[in-house]
Amino acid sequence: MSVRRSTVLALCAAGLIGLGVYAWQANRPAPAPVVKEEAAAPAVDVETVAVVAQAMADDVTAVGSLVSNESVILRPEVAGRIAAIHFQDGATARKGAVLIEFDAAVQLAELRQERANLALAESNARRTEDLFSRRFVSQSARDEAASRLEVARAAVALASARFERTRIRAPFDGTVGIRNVSVGDFVKDGEVLVNIEDIATLKLDFRLPELYLGRLRPGQTLEVTSDVVPGEVFAATVDAIDPLVDAQGRAVLLRARLPNHDGKLRPGVFARVRLILQERPGVLVVPEEALVPAPGNVQFVYRVDGDKVRRVEVRTGARRAGVVEIVDGLAAGMQVVTAGQLKLRDGVAVRVVPAPAVAVAADRAG
Known about the structure:
The protein is an alpha+beta fold. Helix content is 24%, strand content 41%. The chain has helices at 2-27, 105-133, 139-164, 360-365; strands at 44-50, 52-74, 80-85, 92-93, 98-102, 167-169, 174-176, 186-187, 194-209, 221-225, 234-246, 251-259, 270-287, 292-294, 298-305, 308-320, 323-328, 335-339, 350-352. It is rod-shaped and about 200 Å long.
C-alpha cells in the first residue's frame, strides 16, 4: 500500500510542476519583434538647367513670292527690220542705253530734211527781224516769219520722235532677259522683243490672316528664307499694306522690300516669311524637354529643391527655337529637370549630373 501511495504522490507532484511551468510560459511577456531597418532608395540621376529670362519676339509666319522691283517687256511702237542688237542675254543695262536698233534710213532722212528746213526758217526769221527793226517790213511779215520758224521746230521734233521710236532703250537700270529676235528679223509693232528686270531690290508679296490687321504697320521687320539659298536669312521691311481685305480668304496682302545687291535671289522664287510683331524683353524660358505633359492638357516640370524634386504645374506661352515661354509657375534662376523625368515623382531624391558632352570636335580631330 505504501508503494502505491508513493507512486500516486509522485505523479501528483509532477503534474503540479508541469502545470506551473505551463502557467509561467503562458503569462510571460512576448519578446519584442526584431524590426529590420528599410534601406533608403538611391537618388535618381538627372540633368538640369536654370530658368532664364531673355528677349523674345511675337511673330507670325507666312509664305510669299519674290517680285522684281521693276519689270518690263520691251515691245516696239512701230514695225520695222532689226538692224542691230547691243546687249548680251542676261547682261546688265543702264537706264537710257540703246538695246535694239531698227532700220531707220527713212526716219533719219526725214529728220535731216526737217533740220535743214529749221535752219532756213531761223535764218529767215533773223533777217525779217532785222528788216523790221529798220522799218523795211511790216508787222505781219515779222509774225509770218516767226510762225514759219515755230512750224519748222515742231517738224524737227516730230521727225526726231519718229526716229527715236526706232531705238529701243532700257527704261531703268536692270538685267536684260533672253531675247526672242535676231538681227534682220522684221517685227510688227507690239511684238515681244526682250524683258528687263530690276533685281537689285526685290519685292515680296505675302498674305496674313485678317486678325493680325490691327498689329500691322509699314516699317516692320521681316526675316526671309528660301530653299534656293539654304541656311541664309535675309532682312526685309514691310513697304505697304493693301487697304482691301480679301473677302474670300479673309486675308490681307502685304508687300515688303528686300535688298538683293548680291543677286542671290531671283523674281518668282518661293520664300518663307517671319514677321516680327513685337519684341518682349525679360521672358522666362525653359528648354522644351523640361516639360512633361499630363492628362487634361496640363503641363508640369520637376523643380529641384535641395536634393529632392517638386512637381510644379506651369502655364506656357510662345515656343521659339527649342525653348518655351513660362507664363506662370516658375521664377528666374530655378533649376528644372531636363532628363530623367521618367523615374521621378514628387519628393524623390535626385543627384544632378552634367549633361553628356557631344564630342564633335574630338571626332573631327580624329
